[in-house]
Write a structure and sequence with these properties.
Length: 158
């Protein structure tokens, strides 16, 4: 298993990452971790998915695999004002507090619903959002277990 830590080369500029908030870079059209980059290097490259870490932090192989599958699923769902875009927005809210949100996924669903009411948008979701949200998280977890990435992030080391 590969461990990514400080001094790992940036995916974009190839310089070592020595401080700041290292950012995981994901493909959006397939479940794949492309690498890690400086927060500033990925800031203007919109075709990728990004997850910014907050060192000192550790992400196990299981959590990295979960993120790979989550980003792929997130970008495959409808967005904008398309019908059923609410599931994508709900997963984005879940991702905002990850990895803490994994312990209580329904709290992030409630937070999303509370925010959605404040935005005064038309509800376009057909079906039961809670059931679909939990089902989607289960499918992501299953895919992460079946296709581990073999990489962990450990920014506790110097």
């Amino acid at each position: 298993m590969q461990t990514i830590t400080w001094k790992h080369p940036c995916f974009f500029c190839k310089r070592p990452i020595q401080r700041g908030k290292p950012t995981l870079t994901f493909a959006t059209d397939r479940p794949e971790l492309l690498g890690i980059c400086h927060a500033t290097c990925g800031a203007t490259k919109y075709r990728y998915g990004y997850f910014q870490t907050c060192p000192p932090d550790f992400l196990s192989e299981e959590r990295v695999s979960f993120l790979v599958q989550l980003y792929y699923t997130l970008y495959s769902l409808p967005g904008g004002e398309q019908p059923n875009h609410e599931l994508r927005m709900c997963l984005a809210e879940f991702l905002h507090d990850y990895p803490g949100s994994i312990t209580n996924a329904l709290a992030s669903l409630k937070k999303f619903l509370d925010r959605y009411k404040q935005w005064s948008r038309v509800w376009l979701y057909h079906g039961d959002l809670e059931t679909d949200f939990l089902r989607t998280l289960g499918q992501i977890q299953k895919a992460a277990r079946e296709e581990p990435v073999g990489i962990e992030m450990d920014f506790r080391k110097s």
